[in-house]
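Backbone-to-sequence.
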């Protein structure tokens, strides 16, 4: 993230010039508040230069949901702020994606993977308000997995697995496309008695950028 260094320099200029009139000065608290707001605007997707840029950002989000793609932390934060109802549905869809990915990573044969993908599709209820988005998400993850080298290397059946020699080479991540959508932050979700909880963590281990709940 590129920070506004000119703004930081202005802190020293304002605080270090005793000839400034009191009415023209900004307090240290005001400067810090503006700086924090600028950072949060970037996180929440409010740093648009124009209405056209905002619309393009929203269109990108809509297309990614339609395609069942992974949404970045910034995109999720924008939906959370602008449309809480849609956000709850999108959280469910993104959770379904991550759950399916985790299941597929543990599949030992193509046969098992096909069964997991089939079960994920048939488990989507006809009455689910996010049914179309759920189907798109399952299809997106399934196609990524089928196209991966990791899937191609899997034996066809359990019988083939027993005959195959165990490989010591590490398995590559079959979801490279999702990795390309990462913006340096990771969004995690959990549901408890108090509703859902969201946490966005930065690149530093243990660093939490913000948390939200409902």
């Amino acid at each position: 993230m590129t920070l506004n260094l000119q703004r930081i320099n202005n802190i020293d200029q304002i605080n270090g010039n005793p000839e400034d009139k009191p009415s023209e000065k900004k307090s240290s608290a005001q400067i810090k508040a503006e700086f924090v707001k600028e950072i949060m605007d970037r996180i929440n997707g409010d740093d648009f230069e124009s209405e056209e840029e905002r619309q393009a950002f929203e269109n990108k989000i809509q297309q990614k949901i339609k395609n069942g793609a992974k949404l970045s932390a910034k995109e999720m934060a924008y939906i959370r702020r602008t449309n809480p109802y849609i956000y709850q549905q999108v959280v469910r869809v993104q959770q379904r994606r991550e759950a399916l990915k985790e299941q597929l990573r543990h599949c030992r044969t193509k046969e098992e993977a096909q069964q997991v993908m089939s079960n994920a599709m048939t488990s989507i209820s006809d009455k689910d308000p996010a049914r179309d988005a759920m189907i798109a998400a399952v299809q997106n993850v399934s196609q990524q997995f089928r196209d991966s080298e990791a899937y191609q290397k899997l034996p066809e059946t359990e019988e083939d697995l027993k005959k195959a020699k165990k490989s010591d080479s590490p398995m590559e991540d079959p979801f490279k496309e999702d990795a390309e959508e990462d913006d340096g932050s990771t969004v995690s979700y959990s549901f408890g008695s108090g509703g859902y909880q969201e946490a966005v963590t930065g690149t530093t281990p243990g660093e939490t950028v913000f948390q939200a709940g409902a």
